[in-house]
Amino acid sequence: MMKVARVLKRVPRFTPALAFKVGLVAAILCLILVIPISFLSRNKLDLQEEQVYDHGKQEHQVESPEGNAFDHGSDTDVKDHQQQIALPEPQADQDQVIPAVIDAVPLVRDEEGDALPGHPKQRRNIPAPRKKALPILREDPNGQMKPPQENANKKSVSSRPVPSDENDPVTENMLKVPFFKEGALGNYEVTQEKRHGPGENGVAVRLSGADEAAAIGGNHEYGFNQVASERISLDRSIPDTRPTECKHWDYPTKLPKVAVVIAFHNEMWSTLLRTVHSVINRTPPHLLDEVLMVDDFSDKEPLKKALEEYIERFKGKVRLIRNAEREGLIRTRSNGAKSAKAEVIFFLDAHCEVGVNWLPPLLAPIARDRTVMTVPVIDGIDSDTFEIHAQYQGKLFRGIFEWGLLYKETELPEKEQKRRQRTSEPYKSPTHAGGLFAINRDYFLELGGYDDGLLIWGGEQYELSFKIWQCGGSIEWVPCSHIGHIYRGFMPYGFGKLSGKGPIVSLNLKRVAEVWMDEYKEYYYIREPLVRALDEGDISKQKAIRERLNCKSFKWYMENVSMSSALSRVRRFH
After folding, report:
1. Which tens digits make up the pLDDT trace of 191-242?
2. pLDDT over 90 for what percent of the chain?
3. pLDDT by residue (tens digit) across 84-102?
4. Across 26-40, 135-149, 245-259, 272-286, least confident range
């Protein structure tokens, strides 16, 4: 007890002087702690605010190794993109800055989602260019300038314009490359009219009894079921066979116009005109220069004056020219290319139906690079029932060949798949089937068009494929463009005087081999030894074209383009 008492005596008593000292120490400690915390907190808020408004480089603008520029966006990317404007360089004169900034403002949509054509609904108040990104303010209907997050609840503000006429000054420079919009329809997407009747939506038309017997005659004359075809409307609806992703692509608003070239000979009336109607019905009018029908000396009565009178209803959108004699498919197409005036030509067979939003995906790669040929995915139309069905069941294929120069298709190699971020993007292909494709008209003619020594049909797909690749161009297949094509089991007509010149396809293939395949032509002759003795005719013009264009060797083509198709088989012949 005595020890405890002595300890307590040493504890100072609580006096006013002691209280003052304790309070002074506490105040000093508070100042030391509170000031730094406040400073750090304010800096953190400033940093967060800067991150909200600093929308710099577009992270989702991707350039593939092949040069395919595609915007791979999402909902977040669309919102971010609304704040991104391509400002002029800082050294530009002030008088030039303001018009340039105004011209760069994207078209917006009203609250109901309808695009406002011609001019933007609102203009953005954008400061002069600075090194550091500044907050971009948006003017509200009351004239108040507010930051973007205050308008974030608007339902359908979009930085992507809808398709417009090519003369529209505002939309001209808006969308340069395809842009993917997660969860939103693309700018060229339209709702197809719901129709009812035989064959609508691509459903099969099945005959029975007397109708089935009557169809035999039409099948023999045309290779198609004439009775079933004539029951189907020329404007029938079709199924959308594209991959689901295709509905969410925006395509450039300024695309080249196209002339659709349809070569035909003694084609069945209903299939020929259903082809024309499908193009008129499912092509944006401002992109379609004309449908050019090229008649290869048909002798069936309905294809004469009656056809000329029928196409008058299209008011100049459909034009008809005729060959003076039978020339065959290849030369007839060449005549169409020479007669067309549009920037792009699309060759279409005379028994097809183009698909939903078929054209913009084909034109976008050509608008980027005039040396690209684009090829649609070809769906099947049954020649007996006219049922439309997807040809590849969702898989991606590309054109190849074997050493007998027989056309084949194989699934897209993994290497090519990895070059793209989305399965709906175009991809490279060594060859194409030959029937349906789009190409810049001037570029096609610079290449010499089709070899005018090729007869009727056959081999032209290789001649053009090798020529394009070896002379600096490329071929892209486009998964978002689908076209239905009727495949018939036999050729219902002859070739007149052209058929007396020997085995047509073999002669054509020998011309291709001699001009383009260099030493690799020996692999073709090993497979087809009798072809070596055939006379391929004069090929000096084609060799001169190859020399003038400074085209690469076939060895380069095999090693850089077609290595996964035929190169693997070369080793068997060594």
Report:
1. 888 899 999 999 999 998 888 878 887 777 888 899 999 999 999 999 999 9
2. 50
3. 333 333 333 333 333 332 2
4. 135-149
Quote the radius of gyration of the chain (alpha carbons, Å). 33
CA distance 451 to 453: 5
Tell me if 61 sits within 8 A of 176, measured CB to CB. no
* pTM to 2 decimal places: 0.70
Q: What is the pLDDT of residue 252?
A: 94
- Residue 298 corresponds to which tokens in the numbers above? 């048909």
Is residue 257 pLDDT above 80, yes or no? yes
Q: In sequence order, which ranges of 387-503 are alpha helices (DSSP H)?
A: 414-418, 441-446, 460-470
Q: What's the rounded Cα separation, in Å, for the pair 459 and 404?
A: 11
As a whole number of Å, the end-to-end CA separation of the chain is 112
* Residues with Cβ within 8 Å of residue 411, at least 6 apart in sequence: 395, 396, 397
**Positive/negative CA dihedral, 11, 12, 13, 16:** negative
Instruction: Provide the residue count of the chain.
Output: 574
pLDDT of residue 28: 73
**Per the structure block, which two tokens stand in for 260?**
């659709």
Rounded CA separation 341/445 (Å)? 12
Q: Decide if 514 contacts 385 (C-beta within 8 A).
A: no
Residue 34 pLDDT greater than 60, yes or no: no
Residue by residue, DSSP assigns 347-407 as EE-SSEEE-TT-SHHHHHHHHH-TTEEEEEEEEEE-TTT--EE-SSTT--EEEEE-TT--E
- Looking at the DSSP bridge assignments, the partners of residue 124 are 138
Between CA 113 and CA 122, with CA 118 as vertex, the angle to 5 degrees is 60
Buried b (16+ CB within 10 A) or exposed e, 500-511: eeeebebbbbbb
Could you identify the residue written with the tokens 């035929």?
566
Evaluate if residue 377 carries a pLDDT over 90: yes
